[in-house]
């Protein structure tokens, strides 16, 4: 069948649309796979909620006690709880990304996935979506309980919360990419790295105290981390009622750099695992 001149330019466009649809289908299939795993196991769901809930209650009751003894704690009402909830967004999102990847290794399925048409970028996007799903499952009930127990409404931060959330989640994906890349390179012997990497940054991100609290030589390290700007921004809102926009722009710029580096590391380690044939042995 001969095509008319007007129909020939449409072929690349149709192929591109078909490729995008196929890519979206593969991503959606991976997301559904992970969602079915979460939905079919109540212990998994309970585990997602348990640690954020315990942390929120512990810090919330501590803040309530301090409010009875110091005037500063009264002024900073919600500071600890807000910091805990924002920190858990970073932690839960990073672990949601990394654990979903680790489950492919534990089930010895990673090699099978790599033999399918699924591309590395599509796998990364699927893991990003799954981390958001797990984050919602974990944080929505905890945020509601924070309002019920302590009267702290995270959404009352308004636009600032959306910017805080976006910066923390992007950083969590960068850490997740590095963590999964390390596991690809060194195998399950480095599995604990995926659990520990985010907590290395806990004292440096100044979650519960200002950057000025750190020694002078350590402050530049803290300021090189996007979450530091988020928690500085939270303190500015709670203590001064001011949203400092330039802090969020700096955090976003750093996040772009970290995400590009994280994806480059993931792609490098994945290619190295393919070349050395370690993908099929990863679950051993």
Structure description:
The protein is an all-alpha fold. The chain has one domain (15-281). The protein has 11 helices and no strands. Helix 1 (10-39) packs across helix 6, helix 2 crosses helix 6 (120-150) and helix 4 (79-106) runs antiparallel to helix 8 (191-200). The mean pLDDT is 84.
Q: How many domain modules?
A: 1
Characterize the quaternary organization of these chains. Answer: single chain
**How many distinct helices?**
11
Work out the strand percent: under 5%
Helix content: over 70%
Shape descriptor reads globular
> Radius of gyration over alpha carbons?
22 Å
Distance between the termini: 53 Å
The total strand number stands at 0
Pairing-aware structural class of the strands and helices?
mainly alpha
H/E topology pattern: HHHHHHHHHHH
The parts where pLDDT drops under 50 for at least 5 residues are none
Supply database-style keywords.
11 helices; mainly alpha; 76% helix; 0% strand; 284 residues
What's the gist of this structure?
This protein is 76% helix and 0% strand. The chain is mainly α and 284 residues long. Helix 4 runs parallel beside helix 7.
Task: Give the topology.
Elements: H1 10-39, H2 42-69, H3 71-75, H4 79-106, H5 110-114, H6 120-150, H7 159-186, H8 191-200, H9 219-223, H10 226-240, H11 245-275
Helix pairs in contact: 1-6, 2-4, 2-6, 4-6, 4-7, 4-8, 4-10, 7-8, 7-10, 7-11, 10-11
């Amino acid at each position: 069948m001969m095509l008319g001149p007007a129909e020939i330019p449409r072929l690349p466009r149709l192929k591109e649309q078909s490729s995008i649809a196929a890519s979206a289908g593969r991503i959606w299939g991976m997301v559904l796979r992970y969602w079915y795993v979460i939905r079919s196991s109540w212990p998994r769901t309970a585990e997602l909620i348990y640690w954020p809930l315990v942390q929120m209650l512990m810090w919330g009751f501590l803040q309530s006690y301090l409010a009875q003894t110091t005037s500063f704690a009264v002024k900073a009402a919600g500071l600890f709880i807000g910091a805990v909830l924002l920190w858990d967004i970073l932690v839960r999102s990073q672990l949601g990304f990394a654990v979903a990847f680790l489950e492919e290794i534990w089930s010895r399925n990673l090699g099978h996935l790599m033999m399918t048409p699924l591309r590395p970028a599509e796998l990364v996007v699927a893991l990003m979506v799954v981390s958001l799903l797990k984050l919602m499952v974990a944080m929505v009930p905890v945020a509601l309980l924070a309002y019920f127990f302590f009267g702290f409404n995270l959404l009352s931060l308004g636009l600032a919360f959306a910017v805080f959330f976006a910066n923390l989640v992007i950083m969590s994906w960068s850490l997740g990419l590095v963590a999964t890349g390390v596991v690809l390179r060194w195998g399950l012997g480095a599995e604990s790295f995926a659990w520990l990497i985010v907590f290395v940054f806990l004292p440096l991100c100044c979650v519960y105290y200002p950057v000025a609290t750190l020694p002078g030589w350590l402050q530049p390290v803290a300021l090189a981390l996007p979450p530091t700007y988020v928690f500085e921004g939270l303190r500015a809102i709670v203590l001064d009622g001011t949203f400092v926009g330039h802090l969020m722009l700096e955090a976003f710029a750093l996040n772009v750099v970290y995400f590009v580096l994280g994806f480059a590391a993931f792609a490098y380690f994945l290619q190295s695992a393919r070349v050395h044939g370690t993908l099929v042995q990863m679950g051993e």
